[in-house]
Structure formats: structure tokens, C-alpha cells
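Hello Y.,

Per our agreement to keep a running log of every chain we model this quarter, I'm adding this entry. I've kept the format consistent with earlier entries: sequence first, then predicted structure.
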Amino acid sequence: MASNDIICKPTLDTFLRFGVVLAAFFGFGLYFFYDAAVGYRRANEVFCSYREFSRLGAMAMQESDAARWAAQRRNSPLLKAEIQDGELVVRDEAHAYPLPPDCEAARTCPPEVHDLATISKSWNDCWLAYSARLKYPATPGDHGYEAPAIREQWYAGGACMVISALILALMIRTKGRVMALRGDEVTAAGQTFLISDISCLDLRQWGKGFKGIAYATVRGRRIRLDGMTYGGFNPEKGEPAEAFMRELQSRYKGDIIEYEQQ
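Predicted structure for the entry above:
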């Protein structure tokens, strides 16, 4: 490398920005996948169980035989679930709510509803005891989630993961690139060309607003010169991107478009 060559490598700030965006999309993707696989189904279990406690409370008010009540509860699960398309679901007249495959309420009836006197007095107290025991929220959501809503979570998670992969690919591509001036040869945006190939240098964004962005028109194509990503403007490091642009302008003799103060 000649002594007057300028090599601008990707800055640490660039990768920090990439990293924040990557972490956000990857985190959202995991969140959506969790809701699709676990969260929405568990919410359905809580929602349907709460609704069933309410229904049993109303039934208990009409029941007088405590032994019969207890026998019925012990011999039937809290939730009447069925298998639909390979999933455990609770159905009502218009809806089908998928449940977790390990849903306890679909196998047994909790002891909190076995005692007729207790549930007829306050089914909500029975629910609070049950939800506390299983660490469920005391107040469930106001609706359940059907299969289409769960599929939407899978789609949203997949979209986030695709975007995460694209960001990672962009990070890898950026890491392998430089913005450089080697003699009369310029390297930028993954392309190499001669200064003499430049017909116009657009500097309107180099010194204002989005500082560090310029465009070189090379054989009819606009090529981005990104000083924020490559080199940067840290005074402690000698402002590599600014040094690149000063040297390029000193060797370039063509048209230059600059920002005009109003």
C-alpha cells in the first residue's frame, strides 16, 4: 500500500447499529414463535378454564346433592377437549381454541370445584385458588385465540427471522468491504473504478443532515460513498472518511454538486 493510499474500514458504530436492529428482530421473532407454540395455547387454557369455572358456579347454584356433584366432577375433566387436525382443542358453538398438549384441565377436574358448598358460595374464590396454585393470571384475557391467530404468529415470527438473516448477511457483506483510494483507483460499494471514470460527484449530503453520504456518477451509475459506515468522522482517529473525501476531491477535476446554503 502506498503511503498516500487511504483505506476506510467499517466502523464499530456501524456494527453496533446493525447489532441493535438484529437483536430487535431476532427477539421479536422468538417472541412470536413462543406465542404460536406456547403462549396463545396457554392463554386459551386459562380463558376456557375461567369460563368453565363461571359455568360450574351457575350450575352449582341449582344443585342440591353434594355427593352427586362431587362424583360428577371427579369423573370428568374440567374442559371437554377433542382432537382436531392433530391438535387438542376446546369447541363451543362458533369457535375452536387450541390448547397445550399437556393441558391438565383437559384430563382432570381440579379439586377446587369438587365441593358443592364452596363453589356455590363463590366460584370466583375457587378460581383464584386454582389460578394461584397453577400460577395462572387471576384475570384471563377477554377472548381466546383460534387457529388462524396462531398461524399469524408463526408467519410474523418467520418474517422476523428472514429479516434477521438479511441483516446478518448485510453485516457480513459490510465487514468484507472497504471504501478506499489507492492512487487513481477508488473502491466503494463493492466496486472499483478510476477517478477519471467519475463524471459527477454529488456532495449535497456529505456535510449536512446525513453527514458522510456522497454519490459518484460512474459511467451513468450512481455509486454510494458512505463515510458513516466506512472510516467514520472520529477526530481521535483522524476522521478517515473526511480524509478520503479531501484526497478524492484534490485529484478529481470534474463536476461537483454541493449543498447550497439558503
